[in-house]
Amino acid sequence: MPIAAIQDILDGKYAGKPVSVRGWIYRKRESKKTIFLVVRDASGIIQCTVKTDNPSWTQAEKITIESSVMITGTVKQDKRASGGYEITVEKLSIIGLAETFPITQDKSEEFLRDVRHLWLRSRRMSLIMRVRSEVLRFTHEFFRKEGFIEVSPPMFISSACEGGSTLFGLKYFGKDLYLTQSAQLYLEALIYSLEKVYCVAPSFRAEKSRTIRHLTEYWHIEPEWAFADMDDLMRVEEDLLSYICQKTAEDCKREIESLGADISKLKVVNTPFPRITYTEAIEKLTAKGFKIKWGEDFGYDDEKALAEEFGKPFFVYAYPRQIKAFYCKTHRDNPDLVMSTDMLVPRIGEISTGGAREDDKEELLRRIRELDLREEDYKWYIDLRRYGTVPHVGFGLGLERLLTWMLDLENIIDAIPFPRTTRRFYP
Ligand code: 4AD
Ligand code: MG
Asked: CA–CA distance from 368 to each of 134, 334, 339, 340, 361 (Å)?
């Protein structure tokens, strides 16, 4: 007999028919004459009933929560059953009998983090992981559709992209290397042959901050392309975001509703996004009574206050040179400003940073010296301006920050299966 996916049974495809299902025991309840087993597989949960006169009764009596099973029976439509269908069991085979499962209701958040390898079986985590997979699919779909070529950057690197303070160092056959913070510099090298490239890869940040939006290892969506300016950049970025949000609202409706997240917030993500300059953002904050001065970087509270006003994703652009990285292109008519833009969303603040890259060799060298970086560390990168330099742009979008916003997650750690933070690297 073919193995049925539980969701297909709930969708009515097997009404009155014999089926086999495979999965794990999710709940168990006994009465004198019947044992009710709720079985879950990757697609859903269904109630299965075993009667006393069934030869499988002793198996059913002995079975424990989270045991793996194979069940054969007949699908019965039943209005009282949650989901509208249940299975009358004919045969129950235990594949792996579970020891007493440590997760019960009323366990603390901290405990659930310690047993993350088991908590991933929860309905909530599996719904999030499904949406995560879909968001990745939409990301790849979008970039392919736009003619971007997927590339694979290195994880071991020899010089920083985003400044020394968040670099993870490691010994590499006696030499000092680091874990990558961003694929950007490598993507820049690849545009000279492929023009439009992107990657989805891990980035690492030795981030001491313990906030709801920081991981030490996260997944980074990064495109980079040639012959483009700031307008092109923001257009592609808002197109990507609205594509992801619209597709997720359409294709993951069930998951989003089950998670209790606000789907309407995704549906209203349409282009063009609001855009304000850094200077306008400072004026808004000053008007709200914030103490921040022109030239200072936004803190989390500043970002949240700005984002509250828009209630949806928006861009801040044209930042002071002193708070942005060495590779940012300076405005030719105002060298105090760089062509950099952040995308902000409510509650989370920044979800992406991007911009035009300094494409003039002398300007780039000036920035490297100004920031006291070692020129020899960036020799290959400077080469890119030596041989056929072109105006180019790119951005980096944090997948988990995006999901935290999209799914109204309380903390970024739930957007990734095995979160790494300052304190958390087990399991
Ligand atoms: O703003 P960041 O540091 O920018 C870059 O790395 C650029 N080189 C990207 C590029 O232009 N290709 O990081 C980009 C994004 C942030 O906006 C945020 O969404 C995410 O990466 N991010 C983090 N996400 C989770 N935990 C952390 N510690 C993060 N640090 C950055
Ligand atoms: Mg940033």
From this structure: 40, 19, 17, 17, 11
Q: Which pair of tokens denotes residue 370?
A: 């100004």
Which amino acid residue places its CA nearest to atom 9 of ligand 1?
Answer: 396
Consecutive H or E run containing 280: helix 278-287
Distance 328 CA to ligand 2 centre (A): 12
Ligand 1 atom at minimal distance to the Cα of residue 354: 11
When pLDDT is averaged across residues 250-278 and rounded to a whole number, the result is: 97
Nearest 5°: the CA angle 197, 277, 245 is 50
Look up the CATH number of domain 116-415.
3.30.930.10
Res. 2: pLDDT tops 90: no
* Per-domain residue ranges of the chain: 6-96, 116-415
* Average pLDDT of the residues in 117-132: 97
- Tokens 């006169």 correspond to 53
Give the model's pLDDT for residue 81.
Answer: 83
Q: Atom 17 of ligand 1 has which residue's CA nearest to it?
A: 352
CATH class of the domain comprising 6-96? mainly beta
Ligand that comes closest to the CA of residue 323: 2
94 CA to centre of ligand 2 in angstroms? 51
Write out pLDDT tens, residues 198-248: 999 999 999 888 899 999 999 999 999 999 999 999 999 999 999 999 999
| Average pLDDT score over the chain | 97
Neighbour-count burial of 86, counting CB atoms closer than 10 A to its CB (0-12 exposed, 13-18 middle, 19+ buried): buried
Express as a percent the part of the chain with pLDDT over 70: 100
CA neighbor of 14 nearest in space, from 78, 82, 85: 85
Could you give phi then psi for residue 281, rounded to 5 degrees?
Answer: -65, -40
296-312 per-position pLDDT tens digit: 999 999 999 999 999 99
